[in-house]
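S., here's the first fold you wanted:
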Amino acid sequence: MSTRFVLAALFIAGSISSTLADEPLDPLAPCGRVLSAESGIPEVAVGFWAFGYLDAATGEAHRITPENMEKMREVLRGRCAAAPDARLIDIARAIAAAEAGAEPAIAVDGRAFLEKFFSPSANHEAMTLALKPSPEDIRAVYAEPLAGKLVEAYDGLFVEGAAIRPKPGQTQLLSTFTTTAALKRGDPVLGDFPGGYEDILQFIVGDVPIARFKFVEPGETLGMAFDGLIHVNGRWVFMPKPWNVLN
């Protein structure tokens, strides 16, 4: 049933897009282009495709009612508005992961990376300096004029002696992983981040993993708190408190 549903959805979406659209429905294309009026691709075709992907990814046969279709279209529009350059297929993957309750692999990787700071042999200074973002990293996440100010600020932050490290007795990690696009949309996870992020949402241009984390003593929730661990351009970098440069 699931397979038949996927094939039917893809057939319908493909038929509609091929007969009415100016270009084919390409899931590898930026969502902003696929969902634009200029593409000529009806949103219902994109919705059918998204339901087909969701069905295949979760192993369920989702009922397509007018209400469910409109909700899917709203979700697609909302996620794409936050990240117009995101590929349609990546948005569908994120929707499927959220429905399945699956944690993105990048979050697992990020926690494994942070756990290294607890190692007795860890060179905290070297590990911290390796997290210094390049100007290209910063501009992949934030727009001007914030980006330029952050380039200068972070250049002065990552100096000899600077180190991210837990205090004695802090042997546990508390962390929240999400994406910059989720923060920009104002998803509930925004409340887990420092309030200053609300002041810089307008400058977010990328859709990349971001985390806040704490080193705490067992059973505690207060400890050494950090924000702005970001995975961009294939590596983890540290861009803390970006709102500080607005003053």
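And the second, which I think is the more interesting of the pair:
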Amino acid sequence: MLILGIESSCDETAASVVKDCREIRSSVISTQIEEHRKYGGVVPEIASRRHCENILGVVRQALDDADVTLDDLDAVAVTYAPGLIGALLVGVNFAKGLAMASGKPLIPVHHIAGHIATNYLTCPTLEPPYLCLVASGGHSHIIEVLSYTKFRVVGRTRDDAAGECFDKCARAMGFSYPGGVQIDHAAQNGDPSEFRLPHPNITGNEFDFSFSGLKTNVINLIHNSQQKNITLNYNNLSASVQKTIAEILTEKTIKAAESLGYIKIALAGGVSANTGVRATLSEACRKRGFEFYMPEKSLCGDNGAMIACQGSYNFLAGITADESLNAIATLSMEDI
């Protein structure tokens, strides 16, 4: 079985061919980071225009690299939600046209489900059910993966996502976009014990996250030091921010696993590339005898392989769409 996956939810135009659910035959990504860097973040209008310019070449390259043609494919999978609406529309409309022209089934894929699926590409033995922490610039979720196509959200952010907190703290420190990577690099040379940063208390669902207070605390710390002409050690502050975010994500995930009876835990999303998060959650699982899975760093960011992989499982479950498929900017995993 060969599935073409197309991803365009934010600022990466990506396409991939995956064989039999877990074998990556090709993966092509056209990133816009350099263009958006001068604005300090993704500009939706620019992202959409670049997707329009790049998507044909990216898909063609993915097919060529996999040494397949459209006739060889079993289906075309595409991210339809959630994400920047203009960016999503480019991928959805291109995939619909490609599917209709080639006579292949069209498979809708939820972006977060795609991130979860990166673990199948890295860990051949992983099978549901298990608990997955999905952390990225726009999402922070703890999700029960009940089957390859059924999910239940048990925890989510009330405000800022973990990746958003990383990026906004980085911007306050004067780091370039994307800030999370810059904090990770600076943290390698820093002392995380210099700054004591808050761990927010959440009323209601004990598995929910909140990162806005941590972000505000760091920004105020920086502004106050600038007003008093005090020089902060940004390596130490970066290490403290990374340590705190990693601890918050880990504490909530472990608590959810113990409460729900899971001994298999996976990590996914852009923040899963962060060395502090990977190490902290991995060590917490090791101490408790839990099985721990995480994707290769090359698969942590948005890519077409994750969409092709999840699309493969959707296809096997009979989940397809017709020409009425539309892009959706916000859609819960439970509303798939």
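Why I say that: The chain has a mean pLDDT of 95. The chain has two domains: 2-115+300-335, 128-298.

Talk tomorrow,
H.
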